[in-house]
Amino acid sequence: MPNQHTLLTFNLLPVGSNISTWWNFGSMLLTCLLLQTLTGFFLAIHYTANINLAFSSIIHITRDVPHGWIMQNLHAIGASMFFICAYIHIARGLYYGSYLNKEVWLSGTALLLLLMATAFFGYVLPWGQMSFWAATVITNLLTSVPYLGTSLTTWLWGGFSINDPTLTRFFALHLILPFTIISMSSLHVMLLHNEGSSNPLGTNSNTDKIPFHPYHTYKDMLMLTIMITLLFTIMSFTPDIFNDPENFSKANPMVTPQHIKPEWYFLFAYGILRSIPNKLGGTLALLMSVTILITMPFTHTSYTRSMTFRPMAQLMFWTLIATFITITWTATKPVEPPFIIIGQITSTMYFMFFFTNPLFGWIENKIMTFC
């Protein structure tokens, strides 16, 4: 006869027995968030939000502050690790139909937008050459907004050019937004526990559930160990693998880099932006490249939730992954042939996945009906 403690344990966070390692990236993201918050707090103590001192303060943290180089590298490399886990987490949601949990998916999309905004503001803070010019290019996109564009840009800059007020505002926003992310993450987890997790088969798992602990906490611990080991390995041997060489020079408004580009995790959106000649059209496409994820729960037409048994959908999914990688690679190249046409083709293919998803679901339904 099971005791009360055993019954309580087996009723605590029950999950499907067949969820795989791909479901561990949620806990990995929460760990990344904790790591970024702690290291960011340490760096904020020593950082100076002044265009004449910001670059020097980063050098001071790296060279003079005890263990400062560890915190600085953990924060910088941790941001890349954060986005790697986030993109894999989203890809898993697309493949296994997790977006049908609408509230969880929509809160997750909001989290991605907040994460990208926070990362953008943080990228400007070192006040390196690429940080300055990337901020100049991206903030100038606001000028394409009809009627309000110039006023919005002036407000964001705190003047008529990127200067001290801009850096102060970006620093303040970079400090505030993580608390919003923490709050939204708490809501995201609460909604997840309320609606339940999906599973690889896309079936109702209510008939076969097991407690989250210890069966899945052990998986989480293993994946977290691998992630932290990888993080410290990169930090120890190749700490500059994600950095642009231009950003090791102090920002100089009088010298324009030969090729301006943001951090790697923004490159897919930047590649879509620059593939459209029209400024307003490019800005809208940039926003849609992320916000189009919101449409997924409302455009799903297939009888089957997961892509496990949908070969046509699988082909579309892996085409999307290849397209995402190609756009990212193209965005690192100069704006010249053949990279212009490659970027335009892949950008079109990226959006085609979302627009054709309902059609392919309908075709698969017809095939299943006939079979």
From TrEMBL:
<feature type="binding site" description="axial binding residue">
    <location>
        <position position="89"/>
    </location>
    <ligand>
        <name>heme b b566</name>
    </ligand>
</feature>
<dbReference type="GO" id="GO:0016491">
    <property type="term" value="F:oxidoreductase activity"/>
</dbReference>
<feature type="domain" description="Cytochrome b/b6 N-terminal region profile">
    <location>
        <begin position="1"/>
        <end position="201"/>
    </location>
</feature>
<keyword id="KW-0496">Mitochondrion</keyword>
<protein>
    <recommendedName>
        <fullName>Cytochrome b</fullName>
    </recommendedName>
</protein>
<keyword id="KW-0812">Transmembrane</keyword>
<comment type="subunit">
    <text>The cytochrome bc1 complex contains 3 respiratory subunits (MT-CYB, CYC1 and UQCRFS1), 2 core proteins (UQCRC1 and UQCRC2) and probably 6 low-molecular weight proteins.</text>
</comment>
<keyword id="KW-0679">Respiratory chain</keyword>
<feature type="transmembrane region" description="Helical">
    <location>
        <begin position="221"/>
        <end position="238"/>
    </location>
</feature>
<dbReference type="GO" id="GO:0008121">
    <property type="term" value="F:quinol-cytochrome-c reductase activity"/>
</dbReference>
<dbReference type="InterPro" id="IPR030689">
    <property type="entry name" value="Cytochrome_b"/>
</dbReference>
<comment type="similarity">
    <text>Belongs to the cytochrome b family.</text>
</comment>
<dbReference type="GO" id="GO:0046872">
    <property type="term" value="F:metal ion binding"/>
</dbReference>
<feature type="binding site">
    <location>
        <position position="193"/>
    </location>
    <ligand>
        <name>a ubiquinone</name>
    </ligand>
</feature>
<keyword id="KW-0472">Membrane</keyword>
<feature type="transmembrane region" description="Helical">
    <location>
        <begin position="22"/>
        <end position="49"/>
    </location>
</feature>
<keyword id="KW-0249">Electron transport</keyword>
<keyword id="KW-0408">Iron</keyword>
<feature type="transmembrane region" description="Helical">
    <location>
        <begin position="132"/>
        <end position="158"/>
    </location>
</feature>
<dbReference type="GO" id="GO:0005743">
    <property type="term" value="C:mitochondrial inner membrane"/>
</dbReference>
<dbReference type="Pfam" id="PF00032">
    <property type="entry name" value="Cytochrom_B_C"/>
</dbReference>
<dbReference type="InterPro" id="IPR027387">
    <property type="entry name" value="Cytb/b6-like_sf"/>
</dbReference>
<dbReference type="InterPro" id="IPR005798">
    <property type="entry name" value="Cyt_b/b6_C"/>
</dbReference>
<dbReference type="InterPro" id="IPR048260">
    <property type="entry name" value="Cytochrome_b_C_euk/bac"/>
</dbReference>
<feature type="domain" description="Cytochrome b/b6 C-terminal region profile">
    <location>
        <begin position="202"/>
        <end position="371"/>
    </location>
</feature>
<dbReference type="InterPro" id="IPR036150">
    <property type="entry name" value="Cyt_b/b6_C_sf"/>
</dbReference>
<keyword id="KW-0349">Heme</keyword>
<keyword id="KW-1133">Transmembrane helix</keyword>
<dbReference type="Pfam" id="PF00033">
    <property type="entry name" value="Cytochrome_B"/>
</dbReference>
<dbReference type="InterPro" id="IPR016174">
    <property type="entry name" value="Di-haem_cyt_TM"/>
</dbReference>
<dbReference type="InterPro" id="IPR048259">
    <property type="entry name" value="Cytochrome_b_N_euk/bac"/>
</dbReference>
<feature type="transmembrane region" description="Helical">
    <location>
        <begin position="104"/>
        <end position="125"/>
    </location>
</feature>
<keyword id="KW-0999">Mitochondrion inner membrane</keyword>
<feature type="transmembrane region" description="Helical">
    <location>
        <begin position="170"/>
        <end position="192"/>
    </location>
</feature>
<feature type="binding site" description="axial binding residue">
    <location>
        <position position="174"/>
    </location>
    <ligand>
        <name>heme b b562</name>
    </ligand>
</feature>
<keyword id="KW-0813">Transport</keyword>
<feature type="binding site" description="axial binding residue">
    <location>
        <position position="75"/>
    </location>
    <ligand>
        <name>heme b b562</name>
    </ligand>
</feature>
<feature type="transmembrane region" description="Helical">
    <location>
        <begin position="70"/>
        <end position="92"/>
    </location>
</feature>
<keyword id="KW-0479">Metal-binding</keyword>
<dbReference type="InterPro" id="IPR005797">
    <property type="entry name" value="Cyt_b/b6_N"/>
</dbReference>
<dbReference type="GO" id="GO:0006122">
    <property type="term" value="P:mitochondrial electron transport, ubiquinol to cytochrome c"/>
</dbReference>
<comment type="function">
    <text>Component of the ubiquinol-cytochrome c reductase complex (complex III or cytochrome b-c1 complex) that is part of the mitochondrial respiratory chain. The b-c1 complex mediates electron transfer from ubiquinol to cytochrome c. Contributes to the generation of a proton gradient across the mitochondrial membrane that is then used for ATP synthesis.</text>
</comment>
